[in-house]
Amino acid sequence: MKLILIALMLFVVCSPRQTCRAQNRNPLLLSTVVPAKEMFARSRVSFDLATAEYDPADIQPDDIRIECLPGGEVLEARQFLPAISWDSSERITIYFRRHIVPGLFDNQIRVSLSLFPSTAAQSVQTIKTQRVKQLNNQLVDAVQQSAKTEVAYEKTSREKDLYVSGGVEGGEAAMNSVLYRGNAWKMRDLIDVIDVGFNLDKGAGSSDPDALNVGLNFRKVFPFHRGKINRRLSPAIDAARGLRATDVSGIQPAPERAAREITQGFTTLTESEAESKPFWRAIVLTPLGPHLETNLGGHGSGLLLSFVNNSDLQIRTGAKFMLGRKDQTTIDKPHTNQPLGTLTLAMKLVPLGFESGVVLRNPDDRGRQGSPLFRINTGAVAKFTYNFPCRIDVLVNRIELEMKGMNRHLFNDESAFDPETRKADLLVHGNKFIAQADLRFIFGFVIPIKYLDRRPAVTITFKNGFFPPLYLYTNKVSVRFTLESKDDTSFDDLKVRIQQAEALRTP
Question: Per-residue pLDDT tens for 98-108?
Answer without folding.
Answer: 778 777 777 88
